[in-house]
Design a protein that fits this description.
The chain is an alpha+beta fold. It is 33% helix and 19% strand. It has a domain of 261 residues. A hairpin with a 2-residue loop joins β16 and β17. It is globular and about 60 Å long.
């Protein structure tokens, strides 16, 4: 529930352009919400490690940042355990009843409502990570989130605005208004929001080590709501969910490697773009040179054209694999399509004949984790399970209705995913854990941040603060209003259809978090001023 409104008037837009300093410490947690960052740091103070911290932060975010995630989210993670790198795919699959004929009356996959809901994987991801890498008891990781759900938290400015925007579209979806609105209103910045139903669900999940969510009381509530609304998601779908230790795929650039989660995620796009840029003169340019930005945009165009065509559940990527798309010959071939002076509209190639919330944490032992969870669009499907505080993602919207696509909708399939946790290695050792929230911005943000930190030597906070661009489609590129006018003019002269976009317009330039290894058991971190979060350390 929402408390009585205080007399505070807290704008979600800053009055002044701000600059943040990077945070340096032996133990660091960086997230998009201060309470989540602090929840993670508290785990380290209790004797936990970076993985414990990241899980506690992620659980807390389901309470304090419901616009970006919830118990109905999916998740991916990349973990450095001190010796080697691990990749976890905790994304869910489509209901068994989702055959192609079910959507025969649709022109495209539904974007909201029950017909966009696949099995949520994030909750299981927390347990999988805790069991393999955590030090603290699993139930301890829930304590901050349960406290904020039961006792309330003050809604931050940016989340308040996203809440308002989401409610405009979703207020009539199943259970949404009852769960997220009081007296037909969403909470303003500074108002206290209490969600006792969510607190009860979190307690059940903690006590049963997730069984309540996938087999027990909560799973039954999800199935009951689905049946009442002629939806397909069943108790059987939930109980059969499995995570996969999928490893990572990578791309070399100079002396470092970018590692991403393999398909069904779009991490492949960042790897391809970086690989294409190896065959350009970007290394001879400075970070804010319009020519450098042009090359990055064109490389991203090429990679996204391929990823949007070929990436799907890996079991369905038989004709064109990630390895095909990352082959040196193919990347070199694609790079030759770039005109150094002119923007082009690229189509997908033939490599083989024939949005979110993000958390990163590191500790003094050297353990680092890059973790991302998301309900996809703001508030996901908009479907809220009565009396549980659970709202479900809309990842089913990532499927295609093209029968010739490997990503065509079908039963027990993972859809194409936008969320990606990034990680950098140099000579087999960890140098950076990072991520960028924001749908199609994510792979583009990865490329921009990696080049700024590793090629051009910027510290994490400076790299995050720099003006960003985002390719949309065709030749259209959105740029932040802070980008120099001269740069915009040159890009326009090259044929880019440049659109100025306020940083807050749909928050389309993402929200980045970075932790970089300084050596000697110290780390340096940056947190995106485009979000409400912070980096904290001890």
């Amino acid at each position: 529930m929402i408390s009585n409104m205080s007399t505070l008037n807290i704008p979600y837009k800053p009055l002044y352009t701000s600059r943040r300093s990077p945070v340096m410490a032996k133990n660091i947690v960086s997230t998009s919400h201060p309470l989540a960052s602090q929840a993670g740091l508290n785990m380290i103070l209790q004797g936990g490690n970076a993985v414990d911290a990241a899980i506690a932060a992620a659980i807390t975010l389901t309470v304090v940042e419901p616009t970006g995630c919830g118990l109905g989210s999916d998740a991916f993670a990349t973990i450095w355990d001190g010796k080697s790198l691990h990749g976890l795919n905790a994304s869910g699959r489509s209901p068994a009843a989702w055959n192609f004929e079910r959507f025969s009356n649709f022109d495209k996959m539904p974007f909201r409502g029950w017909e966009s809901v696949t099995v949520p994987g994030a909750v299981s991801g927390w347990l999988t990570l805790s069991d393999k890498f955590g030090k603290l008891p699993f139930e301890n990781l829930f304590e901050p989130a349960i406290k904020y759900a039961n006792e309330g938290f003050a809604v931050t400015p940016i989340i308040s605005e996203l809440w308002r925007i989401g409610a405009q579209e979703l207020k009539n979806e199943i259970g949404f208004s009852k769960n997220f609105m009081r007296k037909n209103n969403t909470p303003k910045a500074g108002e206290i929001f209490v969600n006792p139903n969510l607190g009860k669900s979190l307690t059940l999940i903690a006590e049963t080590k997730c069984k309540a969510f996938y087999e027990g009381e909560l799973a039954e509530a999800i199935e009951h709501c689905a049946i009442q609304n002629n939806a397909a998601l069943s108790l059987s779908d939930l109980s059969q969910h499995q995570n996969d230790w999928c490893g990572t795929i990578s791309q070399q650039f100079n002396d470092f490697e970018l590692h991403e989660i393999p398909p069904n995620s779009q991490g492949l796009a960042a790897l391809m773009a970086l690989g294409i840029l190896r065959y350009t003169e970007v290394q001879n340019l400075n970070p804010d040179d319009p020519a450098a930005i042009h090359l990055q945009i064109e490389a991203i165009k090429l990679s996204l054209a391929d990823v949007n065509k070929y990436v799907s559940d890996p079991k369905n990527m038989k004709d064109t694999t990630a390895e095909d798309l990352l082959s040196e010959e193919y990347l070199k071939q694609r790079s030759q399509l770039i005109d150094r002076k002119k923007s082009k509209d690229f189509k997908s190639g033939t490599p083989k004949t024939g949005g979110t919330v993000y958390v990163t944490a590191a500790d003094k032992s050297g353990q680092m984790i890059s973790f991302i969870q998301s309900n996809y669009a703001g508030f996901g499907s908009g479907v809220c399970i009565p009396e549980t505080g659970i709202h479900l993602q809309n990842r089913g919207a990532g499927f295609s209705l093209d029968p010739n696509s490997s990503n065509v909708v079908g039963p027990k399939k993972r859809p194409f995913h936008t969320i990606i946790p990034g990680f950098l290695l140099r000579n087999g050792q960890p140098i950076m854990s990072f991520g960028v929230m924001g749908g199609p911005m994510q792979a583009q943000g990865h490329v921009q941040l990696v080049l700024r930190t590793e090629l051009w030597g910027q510290d994490p906070q400076t790299a995050i603060d720099a003006p960003r661009w985002r390719f949309d489609e065709g030749k259209r590129v959105a740029v932040e209003i802070s980008m120099p006018k001269k740069t915009i003019s040159i890009l326009s002269d090259m044929g880019h259809d440049v659109e100025f976009e306020n940083y807050d317009k749909n928050f389309g330039f993402g929200g980045a978090q970075i932790i970089k290894n300084l050596g000697n058991n110290f780390f340096i971190a940056g947190s995106d001023p485009r979000k409400d979060g912070q980096s904290v350390g001890i």
